[in-house]
Please model this.
Amino acid sequence: MIVSSSSGASDPLVMNLNATPFNVGFGVVVTSGSPTYTVQHTFDNLSNSSGSASGFTTWFDHPTIAAQTANADGNYAFPVSGIRVNVTSGTGTVTLTLIQAGIA
Model:
């Protein structure tokens, strides 16, 4: 699964909550420019068009891949329903690549 963002938040990638174990590895590559980015996750239901049952989605910053300016990698060892990358400042493009256990 790959997603890029050049400004603001990318569309989220919906995770398979039925995968056992729920493990997601990811890497973020700065493909151009010098953007500042943060990987974010949500626990909200992303399966409907409004983003969640209540009509809005709450996003949480990854504990170590926040306000980054260079290539970085990390993981999620606990279930989350969606992951995205958010370019918070600067110009350029970042590419987020995820691999979920059992779904390569």
The first strand starts at residue 2 and ends at 5. The domain at 2-100 is CATH 2.60.120 (Jelly Rolls).
